[in-house]
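Schema walkthrough. Field components (list of strings):
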Amino acid sequence: MEHIHWYPGHIAKAEKKLKEQLNLVDVVIEVLDARIPDSSAYPDIDKLIKEKPRLVLLNKSDLSDSELTKNWLKFIKEKTNCPVLTTSASDNKDVSKILNKVVELGRPKIISLVQKGLLPRAVRVMVVGMPNVGKSSIINKLIKKTKAKTGAKAGVTREQQWVRINPKVDLLDTPGIIPLKQQNQEKAYKLAFVDSIGENAYDVEMVASAFINDVGKIYPNLIKEYYNLEDEEINIEEIALKRNWLITGAKADTKRCAQNILNDFRVGRLGRLTLDCPRKYFDNESEPKF
Ligand SMILES: Nc1nc2c(ncn2[C@@H]2O[C@H](COP(=O)(O)OP(=O)(O)OP(=O)(O)O)[C@@H](O)[C@H]2O)c(=O)[nH]1
Ligand SMILES: [Mg+2]
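Field assembly_structure (string):
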């Protein structure tokens, strides 16, 4: 049974816009959520960006399991042949690492322009990713660092979309939003856990139950310990009763509880967790696509 709903009309429109933006750039920065590097990756990314060089960022790495993130870095590098970096909103050291990679990835394009007799120019880059993975935070960080020196270009509306980050890099200031087109419900749930899917597309209690279940597969005692549960039975109702979240008739307020559990995860109160497990893919035939 499918519990998370997609809107095909929006997808077609979003894809068209994304393709138009992609036509303008030399290099693509793909942002993944480090807590779910597989589920937050767009399965059709190769088809979409074609031969354009790509830098992959595992963002929100302050919230992800550092051990699993190391595995993911290695795995994605091997699978895609793209450079991969971990980033987090609070870490400004990311900026120079990102820019160095972008310049490196864009160099062949600039060289080919020069060989054709054209003038060298800055590498044009854009940020793409699923909703809520941190695209705007990364763009802001890249812009802020150098804004005092250069600022956005003045001119017609079109040109204002480009921000000169340094003499070698021009950034499109609007991110490309990868449309949510996950047919796989397991992945769709994970996108809901990290708040990449609007809550009107799903039932919060169902998603929180799936979350408890999925966390338990990788971190078996975590929920029980965090919510101080005595029973073997781990479910939303138990947690609500334990926390005294009640509705009339002293019944468990499962809706509020579900919301709180997801929120505890989203802000990192449950600890640094990664819910896609790369080991699973090393060990069997089915491999995630990037
Ligand atoms: N802990 C943590 N939070 C982050 C990080 N990056 C972004 N966030 C938070 O995640 C939320 C979404 O970040 P945005 O930068 O708005 O993400 P986006 O991809 O632009 O989202 P949409 O525009 O909705 O597609 C915000 O509340 C950010 O503060 C990070 O590295 N670590
Ligand atoms: Mg944004």
